[in-house]
Write a structure and sequence with these properties.
Blueprint lengths: L5 E7 L6 H9 L6 E7 L6 H11 L3 E5 L5 H11 L4 E6 L3 E2 L3 H7 L6 E10 L2 E3 L12 H7 L11 E4 H4 L12 H11 L5 E12 L9 H18 L2 H33 L2 H12 L1
Parallel strand pairs: 1-2, 1-4, 2-3, 6-9
Antiparallel strand pairs: 4-8, 5-9, 6-7, 6-8
Helix pairs in contact: 5-9
């Protein structure tokens, strides 16, 4: 029996330092029936020549360059070009274990989503994942209510049946949280059967400049995503969104309370009291 075709969609923008390693991890998969569609989102570095090298080496790689429009446009382009029964999204700096596709397909019977665990890669060091994907049941409610609070599943961990995606696309007008909205669409518009593989089969790369967003930018990204959800989904999802905002406020208030307690404890230390006495003298 012929193996099921998997479409791997890689969005790439100026990732010349990581793209070769990413594509190599695809090329050495023990599961061999795949196509890898590299969508170059207008890179100005050496990404194109790296991708074209792999296209020449292996016909399963397909390279498409588009005008810069952001990762959502790149992924949507990849969806349109894909021909596989299953879809895996990667970024051009991700790495997948050699058994990622094989383990996923072996665990896909009667399932339409297969999720594997992941680990972080930062400055050449392997770190524990920023989120425990086994902590809560994977459901629409938890995806809406707990996302980026104490629950998150990077899109790179997930193998989707293409039929689930249908007409669903990434929201190209959103600058952030597009993965979150995509997840909500997938779960709210389909009957989902999930298999979770608790093996770290993906390395998710974290960049120092990727975690330095200013507070205002993060706030606006959250607000835009919240407004989109409120305006486009039913009451069940709106209720979960309201609970998420309450949970965020609760956590923020608790953090502020803990900070106040710490400052009070610090003020009561002998060293700090002595410092304040000296300060008055001078």
């Amino acid at each position: 029996m012929a193996e099921t075709l998997i479409s791997i969609i890689i969005s790439c923008y100026n990732q010349e330092f990581y793209l070769d390693e990413c594509l190599h991890s695809v090329s050495v998969q023990t599961y061999e029936n795949w196509e890898c569609i590299i969508i170059d989102d207008g890179s100005t570095d050496n990404s194109q020549s790296i991708a074209e090298k792999w296209v020449e080496k292996d016909s399963r790689f397909i390279y498409i360059k588009i005008a810069n429009g952001g990762p959502s446009l790149a992924r949507n382009t990849g969806i349109e070009k894909s021909t596989g029964e299953w879809i895996l999204f990667l970024d051009g700096d991700d790495i997948i274990a050699t058994e990622k596709l094989n383990h996923s397909i072996k665990n896909s019977e009667n399932k339409n989503i297969v999720i594997s665990n992941f680990e972080m890669l930062h400055n050449g060091k392997v770190l524990e994942p920023f989120s425990d994907i086994t902590r809560y049941p994977i459901s629409t409610e938890n995806i809406v209510k707990r996302w980026d609070i104490d629950f998150n599943i990077p899109i790179h961990c997930i193998l989707f049946r293409k039929e689930l995606i249908g007409n669903i696309r990434y929201k190209e007008n959103l600058k952030a949280k597009e993965d979150w909205i995509f997840w909500i669409d997938i779960f709210s518009k389909n009957k989902i059967e999930v298999r979770l593989i608790d093996e770290k089969l993906v390395q998710y790369r974290q960049h120092s400049n990727g975690i330095s967003k200013n507070f205002k930018s993060v706030y606006m990204d959250n607000q835009n995503a919240n407004e989109y959800i409120y305006n486009n989904y039913d009451e069940t999802i709106r209720k979960a969104l309201f609970e998420r905002i309450n949970l965020q406020n609760f956590n923020l208030n608790n953090e502020n309370l803990e900070q106040k307690k710490y400052i009070k404890q610090l003020q009561n230390t002998k060293v700090l009291k002595y410092y304040f006495k000296l300060k008055k003298l001078f």
